Description:
Blueprint: H1 9-21, E1 26-32, H2 43-47, E2 52-58, H3 65-77, E3 81-84, H4 96-103, H5 105-113, E4 121-127, H6 133-141, E5 147-149, E6 159-164, E7 167-170, E8 174-175, H7 183-191, H8 202-216, H9 220-225, H10 233-243, H11 255-267, H12 279-290
Parallel strand pairs: 1-2, 1-4, 2-3, 4-7, 4-8
Antiparallel strand pairs: 5-6, 6-7
Helix pairs in contact: 8-10, 8-11, 10-11
Bound molecules: guanosine-5',3'-tetraphosphate (G4P).
Residues 58-59, 61-62, 86-88, 127, 129-135 line the site of guanosine-5',3'-tetraphosphate.
Amino acid sequence: MHFQWYPGHMTKARRMMQENIKLIDLIIELVDARIPLSSRNPDIDELGKNKARLILLNKADLAEDRRNDEWLEYFREKGYSAVKVNSKKGGGIKSIQSVIQEACREKTERDRKRGILNRPVRAMVVGIPNVGKSTFINALAGKACAKTGNKPGVTKGKQWIRLNKNVELLDTPGILWPKFEDQEVGLKLAFIGSIKDEILQTEELASELVRFLNGSYPGVLEEKYKIGTSEDPYETLGEIAQSRHCLTKGSGYDTEKAAAILLDDFRNGQLGRITLETPEKAQEQKEGKSR
Ligand code: G4P
C-alpha cells in the first residue's frame, strides 16, 4: 500500500506555528495514545527548542492502559513531562494545571531570580488533525474562563484564555502535519482515521488491520463478530460481512461494507482498548533502520 500525501495548507500551518511559538513558554503537544509516535511530527522538537514541553497521551480511553503507562515512561525518560488524558470525558484534565506548573518550573524559577514575579505561563496546544486539540481546550478551559487579549498594545490579534492567575492558553491550536516517510506510519495514521479514507482503498486498509489484530490481539475479531479464525484477512472480511448481513446487490457478501464497519468499530473503541505501537517495537524499528 502506498501513500503520497502532503496537503498544501500545511505549509501555511507551519508558518503560523513558527509565529505563535515565539509568543509562548510551553508547548502542550497532543498525541494519540494508540500511536504515540506515529501521531507526532518530530519537526516540533526543532520548532519548539528552548520551550518547556508537555506531551499528552490523548484518547487514552481507546488505548490499552498498561501501554499508556509504558509510553508515559518512554516520554519522561526523554525529558518531556507526560500525562494521559481522555479529553472527551474529562479524565485526567483536573491534574493538568499542576502538571503545567511543574513542566514550567525551570522557567518560573529563572523569572523569579530575575525579579519577574507573577508572570503567567503562556501555553499553546499543538497536534495533528483530529487528535483532539479542540476537545482538549474546551475540556480544560470549560465555561468559567475569561478570554483575554485583543487589548490594545497587549496581544494584538491573539486570543488568550486565562485558565487561572498562573496560566494563559492561546485559544487557537497549532496544527501539525502528519509525517510519514515510512509506509508503516502512514498505515497506522489511516487506521485511526487521520488520513482521509477516500485516498485509501477501504478493503485493503481493513485487511491490514485484520492482519495486525490477528498478530497482536488474537481472538478480538472472533469474539466481536462471532466468526471463525482465518489466516486470510480477506476471508475474515467475508466472514464479518456474513455475520453482519452485508449483502451486495447480487447474492454475494459485501466485503467493502464489512471493511467500513470494522474500521469504524476500531476507531470508536468497539473492539476494546487497542494500542497499535509499543515503545519496544518503536525502538526495534529505529535500530533496524540505522543499521
Ligand atoms: P482536533 O481539534 O485536533 O482536530 O480534534 P477534535 O477536538 O475535533 O477531536 C476529534 C475527534 O476526537 C472528535 O470526535 C472528538 O470527540 C474525539 N476525541 C477527542 N478527544 C478524545 C478522547 O480523549 N477520547 C475519545 N474517545 N475521543 C476523543 P468526532 O468523531 O469528530 O466527534 P464526536 O464523536 O465527539 O461527535
